[in-house]
Design brief:
- The structure is a single chain.
- This protein has 352 residues and is of the alpha+beta class.
- 23% of the residues lie in helices and 30% in strands.
- The chain has helices at 50-53, 136-139, 163-170, 202-205, 244-248, 252-272, 290-304, 331-349, and strands at 2-4, 11-13, 16-19, 22-25, 31-47, 61-66, 69-75, 80-100, 109-116, 121-122, 128-134, 173-179, 235-238, 277-282, 309-313.
- Strands 1, 2, 3, 4, 5, 6, 7, 8, 9 and 10 form a 10-stranded antiparallel beta sheet that branches. It has a 5-stranded parallel beta sheet with strand order 12-11-13-14-15, sandwiched between helices.
Amino acid sequence: MNYAVDGYVVKFLGRTCSYKGIRWCGLSGSGIAFKVTGTYARIKIVGDDTTAGRVTEGCARIGIYLNGKRVIDRVVTQPEEVITVFDGEKTQSAEVMVIKLSECAMSTVGIAEIQTDGKPDPLPDKKRKIEFIGDSITCGYGVDLEDPETAFRTDTEDVTRAYAYKTAAALDADYSMVSYSGYGIFSGYTESGEPNKAERVPPYYEKVGFSYAKPMGELELSDISWDFGAFCPDLIVVNLGTNDDSYCAGIKEREEAYSSAYAEFLETVRKHNSNARILAVLGLMGERLCPAMQAAVSLYQEKTGDQNIDTFCLKEQAEEDGRVSSYHPTERSHAKAAEALVAKIKSVMEWT
């Protein structure tokens, strides 16, 4: 039997959207999860327009998990492919997840159908839900290549080895990631001394995503508004400022501009998430902007009176833990950050 993924037979992970009968995943960690009892399960994967040129450095990377273990790790270079998850003579009960390991801006991936002799059903929701808003650190930039002098490639990016995914797993929480490498709140990464206004998270927070790639060669993810009722987080972790700091550079006036933009963004986040606790986090790749992040939260609180928000400064990655591509954190650094963040979250959320 062939089951359309949009036929309510799966649980959606993170922000996804339907287009022409295909479920499209752009953002890091997005995907599907289901359980099935049968002798085989296959998944039909559809590539976006990046597969036309088969530029491996930018094509989407996916992981497919069988009963919690990654059994497929694939860079999607084909316009269409059917991937076998398991196939045997004996019937087995299985939990299957398809997770987009790489980030949204470079490429997207479509999940068209599940082929099985059983009947797929969605995995149940977890009791806790966390949204993470961040940049390359949240995406797991370069975490598979421990060489700081190497450039970015989607096939070395793995969100599941980064602090956010690890934090959600440790807290047994469903997650949603909104993260883009190089992006900030007031300015994306820049070396020119001018603010990089083109690479900022706020313009895309209310959208399904942003990508230079086009599903079906025509769809713009940023044209689709996100339905905030589809995922209602108990907690929102905002980790933005590392790229802004490339512009701010310790200059007071620029840091104040960052704080002002941050406070404004918090209003947008709160507008769509009235009951969520917000935790503003910064520091893993540099702590210089932490006071400005804390000032942003104070500005926001002064204007709104909202007390359902906290701040937390992570320790900067330690030299002995090494570096990966473009001097980003190793999995060791991510694990330490996740441990610290979990402790903070348990405290503010009163989770055990």
